[in-house]
């Protein structure tokens, strides 16, 4: 037996031993709980589908405030009710401190996501001329305390939806 045959036999036997050990330890096979084959992530479960954020125009049923807009039937009425009630809440709850009185209006463009549970998340200030940052902080606080929202739906499943809006505050 030459040296090449001897090394080949050792390599093959090692591969069988490693394969047997992986099967014995449960590290080989059964990948439905993993997102990457060959890696053990414990109880990590791969999502059933990719999560997308939709716009109001892409969903079957737009999000609504449960108390104010629940009885409406069509999406255009629900969307109008959502916007009207949303800005009504902002006007009532936004209290601008006296120290922010300026000669120019403050404009803040905000975007957020309404998740599958009807909660507001991922609040982003897209654009602002609020140099102090105080108005932005007030808007974020008000958004975090919004009343219950019934989430948007596509094919009878709740989905995430993005909402963006400008606010112009004349002080």
TrEMBL record:
Domain of life: Bacteria
Protein name: TonB-like protein
Species per Swiss-Prot/TrEMBL record: Mariniflexile soesokkakense
Organism lineage: Bacteria, Pseudomonadati, Bacteroidota, Flavobacteriia, Flavobacteriales
